[in-house]
Each structure stands twice: as structure tokens, then as C-alpha cells.
Amino acid sequence: MRSFKIATWNVNSLRVRLPQVLNWLADAQPDVLALQETKLIDADFPIEAIQQAGYQVIFSGQKTYNGMAILSRRPATNIITGFPDYEDPQRRLLAAVIDDIRIVNLYIPNGDNIHSEKYQYKLAWLKQLDVFLKNELQGHSQIIVLGDFNIAPDDIDVHDPKQWAGKVLFSEPERNAFRDMLQVGFIDTFRQLNPAEKVFSWWDYRMNAFKRNVGLRIDHVLSSHALASQCVKCYIDKLPRTHERPSDHAPVIAEYHD
DNA sequence: ATGGTTGCAACGCAA
Asked: Which of A40, A57, A92, A166 has its CA 20 to 30 A from that of A22?
């Protein structure tokens, strides 16, 4: 591997956002782009438009909700579309090997609110993820885990940590689960390279949240230790969030070099 | 304490 540029973007409907994704690919020229919330069944996936842009693509979709894709310059092998030992009707995981790097694309459940069934589902999902990632580390040394984690890890990742204390996306059990991921062998690439930067990857559509920069950093790129030392740059591209009809999330980009 | 915005798809559900 000489240099490698990878990004994650929750597009909140690939049907609506396809033109923006194609424009962004042309500008940013990543080697890999992991998408979440495509909201497309596989039969409706825009394979040709993506191939014409010079990318191969794998995807795992469902009707109306969720849905994952990985776009890449080079072919994807060893594809997994769900946890091996956990039946989940929701399409939230897509993993593959690209250029000898294990890429794990995640759309961790939102959780709604901490008193809800969906929050319990989120915590159960995070437990499965822990098992899965430990197992992945047995088989691969070079791993990138990226996507919409729906977890803000620390105070600095939240516009107003006092207001968000105990709330979903920032509750202790969720943040503990994130810390556990780091514990088992991953680095929060953005935070490693930008230790004091208070920037966000998601802003609610409501209440002019983006204009007021009322947001959270919930989209992440984690690197296994073998790769983390090769990551030279990690940043959030806010520009697409300023466009007409934007996704509520911004892309997060990481660049690796020998 | 509630509401606000978007996408899907058909009006409430999920985020």
C-alpha cells in the first residue's frame, strides 16, 4: 500500500443523494467510499452510474430503511452482510477486503431514546459488534472500521455536553461501548490526528442546527494499530452539508501513507 | 416539555 484515501458518508437516501455522491467522488477522488442509509432495495441500486464514475460497488439493502454500500476503485472480496451469529433483519453491516485491508462499514442503530426498545436493540447490537470485531482482529491486522456510529465519544464531540448528558447518542453505556472498541485494538483516527478540534459530522435538519453549528461527531473512522500509524490525515468535509437538499451527515475522510 | 425537518411512501415511522 502506497497511499489510500477512504471515506464514510451517511447519505440518508442514495436515490435523492446520488448526484451529490457522484459530484463528491469526482472532487474528492477517494479509493473507497462507505455509504450508510442508502434506503434502497438491491434491485433499485444505481450500479451503472457508479461504475461510469469509475468505481466498483457492493451493497446490502432493504426497503425504506437502513442499507449499506461500499464503492471502491479496486475489487472487494470476503464480503459479509451481517453478523455471523446474530440474525438482524436490518441491513447495518457490510464488510469486505479491498487491497488487503479489511473494511468494516457500520450503521449502528440510532437508539431513539434511552427508555425505548430501540435503545435496548442498540446496546444488544453493540454487544454483537464487540464479539465480531474481536474475531475480525484474529484474522486481519489491517482493519478500518468506519460508518455512522450514532455515538459521540466525548465532551469535545458534542456542541453542548451538559445538555446532552445521559441522552441517546451520548449516554454512558453507548460511550462505554465505543471505548471498548478502542480497548480491543482500534484508534479513533480523527481524534488521534486532531486532539483538540471540536468539529461535528452530523447536524439535525431542524432548528437551523447546521447554521448554528449545533451538531455532534458521530461518524467515525477507526484504524487497527497496524494501520493507525500510517494514517496521516483525517477530516470532516462540511461542504456537502451546505448544498441544496443535503444529507444531515457530512463525509469523514482518512488518508493513509507508508 | 415539546417541537422542529427530511425521506419513504401513503400518514405514521425512523432518524
From this structure: A92
